[in-house]
Design brief:
mainly alpha; Hypothetical Protein Yqey, Chain: A, domain1; Arc Repressor Mutant, subunit A; 2 domains; 7 helices; globular
């Protein structure tokens, strides 16, 4: 499980004195714990790895947005810190489908649902998220679906 891998990496980082990695992994664990609390009142994913992957993808997305903003504000040191956190978080994300495989998977879902226009994007995205949430980043999936339906 991804959650166990994160705990083991945190222990290793603490023993090795790697403070930046330790700090990032503590942030990851905190975000996962917050998501667990949210899941108590709402609908939680059936698979724990799916929940953890969603949290990690959200954290990476936030950091990428921060890097862009820091670069625009000429704060290169903060952008570098965010990028180092992205590297640590990416270690625990499942490998992503390449563009060809993602387009094939989305094309199959479009054919299955009979989607014909961008109006049907919601149906397609629901199935993409259900079947490929861990292997296709949501923003990338949205762009691919929109491109295939346009």
């Amino acid at each position: 499980m991804i959650r166990d891998d994160i705990k083991a990496a945190l222990v290793t980082a603490m023993k090795g004195g790697d403070k930046p990695t330790t700090q990032t992994l503590r942030l990851v664990q905190s975000s996962i714990k917050n998501r667990d609390i949210e899941a108590r009142t709402g609908k939680a994913p059936a698979d724990d790895d799916t929940l953890v992957t969603e949290v990690l993808q959200k954290m990476v997305k936030q950091r990428r947005e921060s890097v862009d903003l820091y670069r625009k504000g000429n704060r290169e040191e903060l952008a570098a810190q965010e990028e180092s956190e992205i590297v640590v978080i990416d270690r625990f994300l499942p490998s992503q489908m390449d563009d060809a495989a993602a387009k094939a998977a989305i094309g199959a879902i479009i054919a299955e649902t009979g989607a014909a226009s961008v109006k049907d994007m919601g149906k397609v995205m629901a199935l993409v998220k259900e079947r490929h949430a861990t292997s296709i980043e949501p923003a990338r999936a949205s762009a691919l679906v929109r491109g295939l339906l346009a």
